[in-house]
Amino acid sequence: MLELDTTGWLVVSLCAVTVGIAKTGVPGVTILAVPSMVAVLPARSSVGVLLGMLILGDLFAAGYYRRHAQWRHVARLLPPAFIGIVAGYFLLRVVSDEQLKPIIGAIVLVMLAVNYWRTRPDKDAPVPTQWWFAATMGFLAGITTMMANAAGPVMVIYLLAMRLAKVEFVGTGAWFFFIINWVKVPFSANLQMMTAASVKLDLIMLPAIALGAVVGILLLKRIPQKLFTAAVQLLAAAAALKLLF
Hints:
By secondary structure, this protein is mostly helical.
């Protein structure tokens, strides 16, 4: 078992609740969990523990929103995401996630600005259908999730651009991450980021993740569409700024 003091157990438990909320209600709040986990666990161990939590959260989200996933978007994103995961695996051998994070943060901020410009009230912005848009977003999601479990802002950009209703937004993201997070497991295990100790800690946190998932479902039912869109944009920007600085 990974060594944790009382404060560490409290922080990890709160992160588990946050993961549940993010998976079923408000995508992007995991930005709160990433730095918190690093504060109480070794950096590489924190990535592995968080991956296990995300997978358990995916089980709740993918199951509950299974009828709302837009599979055409999942299918467009998965092939480039797989390539991104492999690229991220090899980059982890030569480049630290600290070196890559500022680049990713800058890319996300630029894309958020472009998305805001596209969707201004005075502009009739079409939904982007070009193959390269999905390919770029999928690749960036794959490489960022492999490097630092930080693909949330990238997916927000893509799903906002597709103008999905909030339940379709969450459902599509849930199934996309359900698949790619499982794909990451053998790579993470090979890099000694996911271990038997990290999996044991994840299973202990299952009740906290379940509690967060219930809270997330209740929140999503009560959040208006406009507020939901604004919230995920703000959280994506916060995540990008965190990566940048």
